[in-house]
Amino acid sequence: MSTERAQDGDRNEAASSSGCSESYEFSHAAAKAAVAQVCESVGYEHFKDPALESLAGFALQYILQLGKTATSFANLTGRSQCNVFDIILALDDLTDNGDEGISSESCSLGRSVKLREIIDYVNSSEEIPFSQPLPRFPVAISDRSRNLIPSFVEIGETPPGKHIPLWLPAFPDPHTYKETPMWIERVSDPRGDKIEQARQRRKAERALLSLQRKLVCKLSSRNPVWGDMDGVKEEMREDESEMRSVSPSISEEKVESLNRDGLSVIEAFAPAMEAARDGFSSEAHTEWKKKKPVALSKLRTEKKFLGQPLDLSLQMKGEDRPLSFVREEDRDDKRRRAEFILRQCMENPVDLNQL
Amino acid sequence: MNHGQQSGEAKHEDDAALTEFLASLMDYTPTIPDDLVEHYLAKSGFQCPDVRLIRLVAVATQKFVADVASDALQHCKARPAPVVKDKKQHKDKRLILTMEDLSKALREYGVNVKHPEYFADSPSTGMDPATRDE
Description:
The structure holds 2 protein chains of 2 kinds. Chain A is mostly helical. Helix content of chain A is 68%, strand content 1%. The radius of gyration of chain A is 53 Å and the shape is rod-shaped. Mean pLDDT of chain A is 69; it is low at 1-21, 281-290, 293-297 and 301-315. By secondary structure, chain B is mainly α. Chain B has helices spanning 2-27, 34-44, 51-78, 99-107, and one strand at residues 96-97. Chains A and B meet through helix 2, strand 1, helix 3, helix 4 and helix 5 of A and helix 1, helix 2, helix 3, strand 1 and helix 4 of B. Chain B: One of its GO terms (molecular function) is RNA polymerase II general transcription initiation factor activity. Chain B: It is found in: Nucleus. Chain B: It holds the Pfam family TAF10. Chain B: Belongs to the TAF10 family.
């Protein structure tokens, strides 16, 4: 039906344009649809848009006028709510009853021509319900907006200011309008950082020092036992790992300290070497000769150790070692090492502080 | 006294008829939806929780619109039919609600709706449109 198409077109236009604020446009479009339906029941097939719009406007004006007149009649008698007689009076007021006029008895059914006409109309005409489902348009949005923002009472907040009552909607959270930091800011403490760094440096140097002392101790105290090298090697590896755990930025200082101590190590080695040679002169020469290059290589590796601390383990691995010695020596070594460190700490507090 | 009694009885009858009518209104669904009528009545200050009264207003409006539309239809039908050029004898006139018919119909209700002309190029512009061709 072309009327329906026209209706739908009008309704769609009005609906799309009423997507923005005006509730007037929506209600006007709905009224136009209703009026078009009524005209269709009368007999019309097509509508011209200006005619339909003006007729819908008239119908709305009729409703408004009826309401206004009925309210004024109710207010006249001291009531705020209207009843059926107010409407009947208003109906008569709107119709042009030139000769009759409003009489006191026109409220009743018998006298009110208009009402009789309406009753006849209701009885005679067929029922045409509105074609589209109509939502409760003026109220729904405000309900939604009210529900979205809870009041101070609902949240459980006290409003910031005595002049704000509790039943009003609550203020938005500060993160919506203020820039708050997204992460917990760590307070940077440069002095603390430097102290921490110095402490780690000292720890590394202490480890190095202990390593060198161990070497000295081993060579001086256990001269006949050259197989001890494995244990020393293990210790050196552990010390290296200790050193590696410290930050690489302080490796230069490590080298410097080593240089300082390395000379003392070589000096310490010299008498140890002589003592070893003297001690072993009675024993098998071959054995000693075998071990001797090991010691020399040890010295060599010691020298290299000064320059490149990290290559030590590789060089030591390349030499022959009796394996049985390693495990027995480990336990003893650890014990002796702990004792040695303690002794050194007690005896030479000055040296440690030098580092 | 008799007259008073009679009028009293008539009143009772009237009231009974009224209540009956209002009850019958609940069965009849007016074309104009209740929500729309309630919205516009609220705009004018009409306050009533009773649905029947709102339906009464809706029915009254519907009757008004139907009256105006039927009058316009009469005017539309009363206009002489267009010239039939082909061999068909009787051609159904397209019943279109136009501003002219509407203005004629509304004049009887005391509403003056006059659509101004686009061009005023002849002396008869703005005169009674019934005398002019479409």
